[in-house]
Amino acid sequence: MKNSPLGTSQDLVNRKPLYGLVLAGGRSQRMNPNPGERPKPICKAHICVDGIPQWERSMNHLKAHCQKVFLSCRREQACLFSTKNERICQTQIFWDDETSRGPATGIFQAFKHRWPVDWFVMAVDLPGLDAADLKNLVEFHHTRQTHGATAFAAYQEGVTAHYSLASMPEPLCSIWTLEAQEVFLRHFQQSLYSPLAVLKEVGCELFYPKSSDSVKNANYPGDWLGFMPREVAIDPR
Fold first, then answer.
1. Total-model pTM
2. Which of 132, 4, 148 is nearest to 65 (CA)?
3. Helix 104-111 × helix 178-189 angle, to 10°
């Protein structure tokens, strides 16, 4: 796995189209450890940060850099993904199937089309993503001659509860080339559903974000409080 600084090449002519995919089909089970105690389960995709549902913030991040942006979700979620600012037509949605295979379920729905594009895959539970970090990641990807993928270096939580920089990629905030997509599809057909395992096999250019919040997954209710003083609230729908 390669560890590289920001590239400075000016040869950006041969860029492949870049499509975006927001993974929003999870059931947020870790957000609801005692489901009987809540009248309505919490869904991470619909938590509002700065007054905007997280799924919409994620799509807006990708729209700044991608020619097209898609959302992966379960069919029973479809009626929830609309706001006064954003309407999603069905052509922008990939439906997850009934079998739960984690994030690989949504990724497969995009990669199986084998479109001649790179895919920017983003989990919906990254409320601390920094716009400048995302811009630099995309530019870094375009200036590198990678045949695998480009990803933020992941953060790992140590015994002191502080996050430290890891030499591993964050597979759910990464850009996948055609070669990486093909390896993913081969793994999927073999019932191997780990996106991280694919990135380890194909090779991945690591980009180190300036903001430690950019790749911190918010999986539990308390995780979202760490992004205050942003306005954080549960979408009432």
1. 0.82
2. 132
3. 120
